[in-house]
C-alpha cells in the first residue's frame, strides 16, 4: 500500500495497464511485469512482443497460439527453466527469438519446432554447455546464432550444422572453449559456401591444433582477448594454418587486456593464413619490438591498426601488397611519410584520431597508386600545403586534413592537381580568402573549408575551381560581412554552404553564375532581406536553408521567384512580422507545409500582440476580420464625408430647423415687436425704402417694420438675426418679390423659412408683393401653391395710381389684423 502511494502516477497507470502499445496493433512491450503468460490484451495481430523480465518460468506447447503473427519475440530474463516441445509451434512467421538470461534446464527436442522462418536466435546466458543437444538442426533459415556467455567447452560443430545453410554469424563470445581440434569445424568445410563470421573472443584458448582451420573459408574470424599470454597466442595462431578468411580480427578489449606487450614474432602464424583484411586492435605496449609486425601481413590488401600504442611504423616488407592502411589512435608524433612510402601499392592511407600527431615534415615518396589520404582528427600543424608533402603522388584524389590544428596553404597544388576532394574543415587555415590559392585545382569537385577562420577578402578567392560542385564554408567570414563576387566562376556548383558567416548583405550579382546550384545553406546569418533579384538566377534550387536570419517576411515578389524544383525550404527562426498586411505570406505558409521545414520554429516576432505565436497557429481569420473592419471604417469615413458635405451644403436649412425647434419653445415668450419682417433682394432696397418703409412707418397708423440692414443686431450671425429678430419678433412677413428676388438663393431661402415658419407657428401669413416686371412662369414655379393659401396675401405692385390705392388698402388691411396698439401710438392717433 505504502509502495503504491509512492509510485509516480504514470507508473501507477502502467501497473493498471500492463502492456505498452508501441505501434498500434503491431508492437507491444510488456517488460518488467510479473506476468506469467501472454497477456490477453495483446491482440492476435501483434508482430513485435517484448515480454522481457516477466515470470514465465516454463513454456508449454502452443504457448503463443494467441499471437500467431509474431515476427519478433523477446523473452529476456523471464525466469525460464523449461521449454517444452512445440512451445513456439504457432509462430510460423517468427524471425527473431531472444532467450537471453534464462537458465534453461530443460529444452525439449522439439522445442523450436514450427519456427520455419527464424533468422536470428539469441541464446546468450542460457546455461548451455554443449551444442550437441541443441535442437536447432531444422532451422534452415537461421542466419544468426548467438551463444555468448554460456558454458560451451567444445567448438565441435555437430553434423546438423550442415543443414544451417543460411548461417552467417556464429558467436561463442565468452564461453569455455580451451582447445580447438582438427575436425571441430569439418562441417564448415563442405561446399565452401559460407560467408560465416565466427566469434571466439573471450574464450580462454590454450591451443589450436594445426589443421583445425585447414581449408576452412570464413567471412570473418574474431579472436579478441582469447589468449592469456604471448606464448599461447603465438602458438595458437600457428594453428590457423590453412585458413582462408576475408577479415581476421585479433587483439584485446580495451577493458580486458591480458597480454601485456607485443613481442617479436607474435603474428608469425599468420603467414599461413590467406586473408584480405587484418585488424589488430587494442595492443598497448609495443615498445621497440615492433619490427616483425608486418612480417606475415605484408601481403594482405588491407590492414587496420586500432588503438595501438605504436610510435613508429614497423619495418615494411619488400613488395608489400597492402593497398589500404589505417592507423587509428596510434602514437605517432610525425606523419611517417618516408616509411609509409614503402607500401608501394598503397591506395588508401588513413591516420586518424592520433592525439600526439602534430608534425608533417616528411615527404611521401613515389606512391603512384595513392588515391586517398585521410589525416583527419589529429593535431597536425604545418606549412606549405600541399605539393610539398606529396611531390610524387599524381593520383591523389581525396585529401582529408580536417579537424587538425593549423595549416598554411600556399597555393602550390601543382603535384596534386588531380585532387577531387579536399577537406580542411575545423582546421585553422592561413592563405585561403586572402589569395587565390586554389588556382591549379581545376578538377576539384568538393571543397570543405568550414570553420577554418577563413576571411574572404580577395575577389578571386575561389578562382580556378572551375569543376567545383560542392563548396562548404560555414563558420567563416567575408569582407564587410557582405557577399559580392566570390562565386563568379563556380558555374557547376550544386551545393553551397555559407551558413554562420555573419553575413549582413548579399549583392545582386553574387549568385549570377550558379545556375546549377541545388542546395544553398545561408542559414545562421544576419540577413534582413530575401531579395528576389539576388536569388532569381538559382533556377535549379531544390533545397534552401534560410533559417535563423532576420527576415520579417517573404514578399509576393520573392514567392514568385522560388523555383518549381524547390522541395525543401527552411525559413524557420527568423523575425517574422505577422501584421495583417502580410496576410498573403501568412496564408502561403499554411499552404506550404510540405515544402517548409521546421515549421514549428516559425514564430511571429512582431507585432507585439502576436509575439511568440507560431505562424502555423496564427489565426488568419483575425486578419479577415480586420479587413472587414477596414471596409466598414472606410464606409464610415465616406459617410462622414458625405454628411459633412451635406451639412456644408444645407447648413442654413439645418441650422434653421434647429432654431425652428428651439423657436417653438421661445415664441411664446417673445413679443411682437414688429408688424412685419421684410424680406427682399438687396437690389430692391431702394424700392423698399421709398415705396414701402416710408409710407408704412410714416403713415397713420404707423407700422413698425423689421429691416435686416437696419434692425438686425450687429455681431450676431445673420441666420440668428433672421430667426430671432425677423420671424420671431414679427407678426407678418412681407416678401418683396422681384426678378432679383427669385434669382437670389438667399431670398429663396428666406422665403422658404418663412413658409415653414408659417406652418409651424400658425402665424398670420406671408404678404407677397410682386413687382411688375417679374417673369410669371418663374414666379409660379417659385411661389408654388403658397400664394393661394388663405392666410397669405398676394399683392401685385403696379405703377398706376388706381392700382396703388387698392394695393395700399389691401396691405394696411392685412397688417392691421391682430395689431396690438401701445399707448404712445394710441395717443398719437
Ligand atoms: C510474481 O508473481 C509470482 C506468482 O506468479 C509471485 O509468487 C511473486 O511474489 C511475484 N513477484 C513479485 C515481485 O511481485
Ligand atoms: C484475430 O481475432 C479476431 C477476433 O478477435 C478474429 O476475427 C480473427 O480471425 C483473428 N485472426 C487470426 C489471424 O487469428
Ligand atoms: C545449469 O545447468 C546445469 C545442468 O546442466 C545445472 O546443474 C545448473 O544448476 C544450471 N545453472 C543454473 C544457474 O541454473
Ligand atoms: C560477408 O558478410 C559480411 C557481413 O557479415 C558482408 O559485409 C560481406 O559483404 C559478405 N561477403 C560476401 C561475399 O557475401
Ligand atoms: C574527413 O574526415 C572527417 C572526420 O573523420 C569526416 O567527417 C569527413 O567526412 C571526411 N571528409 C571527406 C570528404 O570524406
Ligand atoms: C572561368 O571558367 C572558364 C571555364 O569554365 C575558364 O575558361 C576561365 O579561365 C575561368 N576564369 C577564371 C578567372 O578562373
Ligand atoms: C545549414 O547549416 C546549419 C549550420 O551551419 C545546419 O545546422 C543545418 O542543418 C544546415 N541545413 C541543411 C539543410 O543542411
Automatic annotation (TrEMBL):
Subcellular location field: Cell membrane; Cell projection, Ruffle; Early endosome
Keyword field contains Thylakoid: no
Bilayer-crossing regions: 627-648
Chief localization: membrane
InterPro entries: Leu-rich_rpt, Leu-rich_rpt_typical-subtyp, LRR_dom_sf, TIR_dom, Toll-like_receptor, Toll_tir_struct_dom_sf
Record membrane topology: Single-pass type I membrane protein
A molecular function GO annotation: transmembrane signaling receptor activity
Gene3D superfamilies: Ribonuclease Inhibitor, Toll/interleukin-1 receptor homology (TIR) domain
Keyword check for Signal: yes
GO CC annotations, alphabetized: early endosome; lipopolysaccharide receptor complex; plasma membrane; ruffle
GO biological process: one example: inflammatory response
Similarity annotation: Belongs to the Toll-like receptor family.
Protein name from the UniProt record: Toll-like receptor 4
Lineage: Eukaryota, Metazoa, Chordata, Craniata, Vertebrata
